[in-house]
Specification:
With about 110 residues, the chain is mostly helical. The protein has four helices and no strands. It is about 70% helix and about 0% strand. α3 packs antiparallel against α4. The longest helix has 30 residues. The radius of gyration is 19 Å and the shape is elongated.
Length: about 110
């Protein structure tokens, strides 16, 4: 628990350092606008994904797995800072895994369209 607290504090100090350096380089107003825009984008992402998340989380096929990729990205966008925004972009752009069996067949429901 202490290690997690130390990591969170260190992350916060690094975020503040980068925000100060960015404000020195670009100015205070653009940094404030950047933080406001990323918080707004995160809020919109959370709003759009919340109901979908609840529906998918409690479906029998998905029990035990939580499709929380966009929720994590939304939370990271709301957290003020440059590193958290970059982490959110990485989470959003990271390629999704597909479920395949050992023989390379993709599992799922498919419908043949003739």
């Amino acid at each position: 628990m202490k290690i997690l607290l130390i990591i969170l504090l260190a992350f916060s100090f690094v975020e503040i350092y980068f925000l100060i350096r960015l404000a020195e380089f670009a100015g205070v107003l653009p940094v404030i606008l950047l933080l406001a825009a990323s918080a707004w984008a995160g809020w919109q992402l959370l709003k759009s994904e919340y109901r979908t998340f609840l529906k998918r989380a409690f479906m029998p096929a998905n029990l035990g797995t939580l499709p929380a990729r966009n929720l994590v990205a939304g939370i990271l966008l709301i957290v003020p800072g440059i590193l958290s925004d970059l982490a959110a972009i990485v989470v959003l752009l990271w390629p999704k895994r597909t479920r395949t069996t050992e023989d390379g067949i993709i599992e799922g429901k498919f419908q043949r369209m003739d």
